[in-house]
Amino acid sequence: MEILEKTDTLTRVKVAGREITLVGTAHVSHESVEQVKSVIATEMPDRVCVELDERRFKSLREKSRYEDLDIYKIIKTGQG
Question: Which of 36, 42, 5, 38 is nearest to 23 (CA)?
Fold first, then answer.
């Protein structure tokens, strides 16, 4: 692995002849969102990979579960 560029939030590496750009983010930061959008628009990568912690992954996978909840039943039974 060869490091091509490294800043506080961005690292470019070359692995097996392929260039990989890693963008460090803060999930609640508007600035991070804008940087990621800019890198994707500028680089036009073949792939975009996102690291998610388990909680965020579950919330994405189980989205329909939350959409189907009966909020009145939850409050009535004291689960809310």
Answer: 36
Residues 6+ apart with CB under 8 A from 48: 40
pLDDT in tens, 23-72: 998 877 889 889 999 999 999 999 999 888 888 888 778 766 666 667 77
Q: Report the alpha-carbon distance of residue 44 to residue 75 in Å, rounded.
A: 47
Supply 68's token pair: 């189907």
pTM above 0.90, yes or no: no
Write down the number of H helices and E strands in the chain: 4, 3
Torsion, Cα of 66, 71, 76, 80 (10° steps):
50
